[in-house]
Amino acid sequence: MADTAATNTKDLSKIKEAIKRRKRETYTPVVPDSQLGFVHHNIDCIGCRACEIACKDKNGLPPGPRFRRVMYIEGGKFPEVFAYKVNMSCNHCAEPACLPTCPTGAIWKRKDNGVVDIDSTLCIGCRRCEAACPFGAPQFDPSDGLVKKCNMCIDELEAGRKPYCVMACMMRVLDIGPIDKIRAGTYETKAMGPGETTVRAIKNMANPELTNPSIAFVAHPKGKLGA
Amino acid sequence: MKKTGNTIARVYGAILLFCCPLTAVIAADAQPVASVVQATTPSLAAGLDYERARWHPLHFKPAIDTATNEQCLSCHQEVLEPSVKTQSPAGVKSADALAWYQTLEVYTGEQETFHRRHLVTPLAQQVMDLKCNFCHQGNNPREEAPVPPTATTKEAGFTLRKMVDPEETCLRCHGRHPSELMGLPGPWEETREMMGNSCVTACHSGIRTVRHQVNFLKTEAIEKAGQDNSDTCFGCHGGRQWYRISYPYPRHAWPGMPAATPDWAKDRPTESDVRFRVSTPVATTTGSPASTEAAKSGDTKK
Q1: Which of A86, A73, A98, A69 is nearest to A199 (CA)?
Q2: What is the pLDDT of residues B94-136, one digit of tens each?
Q3: Residue B210: closest CA among B247, B268, B266, B253
Q4: Spatial CB neighbours of B54, under 8 Å, sequence gap ≥ 6
Q5: Which H, E and C letters describe A154-193, residue by residue?
Q6: Which of A135, B12, B228, B271 has the greatest number of CB atoms lying within 10 Å of its CB?
Q7: Where are the domains of chain B?
């Protein structure tokens, strides 16, 4: 009899919890105090991929997933030929598309610096974030069936250093900083030469209006939108 | 060591032999693509090696435009298999997880992958008619980028690091609900009660009466589901919002449409993309469009 009463009590609490959970929820994006972002010089990058390797080394990634990707873009007809590189990882978007898709809360945006972080131990491998990201940032690791992504080497940031990819760049064409200052040209960085300006997007990049990615490029003339 | 002409020729010969599969594909690319695709597709699942399969013409324009689901799934059938873990490494159980958009009344079932949610789950089968090449319009296995760059993402069919163009695919159903353009006093979450919790009854019985008449949706099923539950409408118009902008849907004319076009609609097309059009969109004033079959038979109410 006592057992039955206990079971009933437990069931009631479960029902109440279930009703509470069914309450309609909405999503409100995090607005960070400041937003860190990347800057990449498309023309001066030599495509050595040291950034990619440093990233894989730091994050212990097996063959396959690549948090950072250097893309070789070529075109034209002789003698008017051109080549440039585009280097992207997670763009730590102002309003990331990956975040609202995650059913377990494995992805979140840091309030202090805007880094879009992930705890892959909470990942159930549904891969919705991978599909939603317009920039291919979340990477599925087939070796353990989990999604992983760049977190801008948050441990390095917290130790006052820059991410491994930036530190590995021998040409100093990749850097991080407050994205508003990078865009305004007021951030001191070796990734931009004197008089050079940045753009938010280049040819064939997904529309930045989708998520407002925190990245700026010193674009190749042939890579500029409308060129 | 000084290289003689013969040595150089041998080196190049070796390179050519090594690249033979690639040159074969390039040569094949020069042939009419449709015939190559037709000739080789049945053998895809039967054992093309990985590299040959990756560079199969079916993966690229123009063949990808006419690829069938059967052709795609002959190699990629794993996308339809349930693969979500029952629990995460830290012990979060899939059955206990509930995202904000999963509190919509029309969201049912277990945690699933995005491919299954768009192709085989009950809601997908009820209201969607998606083909693999609705999203997948091309790729570049080597660079993950259109090379050479194209003027627009639409031209390439995919974007940097992505095998789809999210602006032309995902955004259609995962964009923001444009409540301010619709003249609502606030976001739908806040105004739904005020509007009688219905999109169709309150406003949309007579507006955009050819809505959803595209070949990737099941028109009549959507209209019916929308009448039954406004969460069906909101689900694809803000309720599963991944992106901060709305999709600029075509502005089809409707009976009684104001003559002046508002600023926000000035650049919009007035018809659906050619590749998504059904034979003849059927305009009705009831909010319950006649079937496209009716349109084919000429029995329209236009």
Answers
A1: A86
A2: 999 999 999 998 999 999 999 999 999 999 999 999 999 999 9
A3: B253
A4: B141
A5: HHHHHCCCCCHHHHHCCCCCEEEEEHHHHHHCCCCCCCCC
A6: A135
A7: 15-78, 97-127+170-302
Hunting for tokens 């998606």 — which residue is that?
B130
| Radius of gyration, alpha carbons of chain A | 21
Sign of the Cα torsion B80, A105, A136, B138 reads: positive
- Looking at the complex, report in whole angstroms how far the Cα of residue A190 sits from the nearest Cα belonging to chain B: 25
The C-alpha atoms of residue B159 and residue B170 are separated, in whole angstroms, by 13
Q: Which tokens belong to B191?
A: 């105004």
Give the H/E segment covering residue A75.
strand A69-77
Phi, psi of B63 (to 5 degrees): -65, -35
Question: Is B143 within 8 Å of A26 when comparing Cβ atoms?
Answer: no
Tokens of B232: 């069906």
Contact B111, B96 (CB under 8 A): no
Going by C-alpha positions, the residue among B137, B117, B142 that lies closest to residue B67 is B137
Reduce the DSSP state of residue B102 to 3 states and report it.
Answer: helix
Measured CA to CA, the distance from residue B63 to residue B209 in angstroms comes to 34
Q: What is the pLDDT of residues B216-244, one digit of tens each?
A: 999 999 999 999 999 999 999 999 999 99
Average pLDDT on B173-178 reads 97
- How far is C-alpha B242 from the geometric centre of its chain's CA atoms? 15
Dihedral of alpha carbons B217, B218, B219, B221, sign: negative
Give A134's contacts in chain B (Cβ within 8 Å): 159, 162, 166-167, 170, 243
Tokens of B240: 């599963």
E strand or H helix that includes residue A217: strand A215-218
Residue B156 structure tokens: 């390439």
Is the Cα torsion angle A131, B113, A29, A89 positive or negative in sign?
A: negative
For domain A36-223, give its CATH number from 3.30.70.20, 3.40.1160.10, 1.10.150.20, 3.40.50.2020.
3.30.70.20
**Strand ranges (DSSP E) for B150-285?**
none
| Domain ranges (residues) in chain A | 36-223
A25 near B CB under 8 A: yes
How many Cα neighbours within 13 Å face the side chain of B252?
Answer: 20
Q: What is the dihedral of CA B177, B178, B179, B183, to 10 degrees?
A: -150
- List of E strands, A79-184: 80-88, 107-109, 116-118, 139-141, 146-148, 174-178
Q: Are B285 and B206 in contact (CB under 8 A)?
A: yes
Closest Cβ–Cβ partner in A25, A72, A145 for B100: A25
Report whether B217 contacts B233 (CB < 8 A): no
Half-sphere exposure (Cβ direction) of B301: Cα atoms closer than 13 Å? 13
In Å, how far is B248's CA from the nearest CA of chain A? 13
Antiparallel, parallel or unpaired: β A116-118 and A139-141: unpaired
CB contact under 8 A, A206 and B171: no
State residue A10's pLDDT score: 63
What is the DSSP code (8-state) at residue B59? Answer: G
Alpha-carbon distance of B242 to A210, in angstroms, equals: 8
ipTM of the complex: 0.89
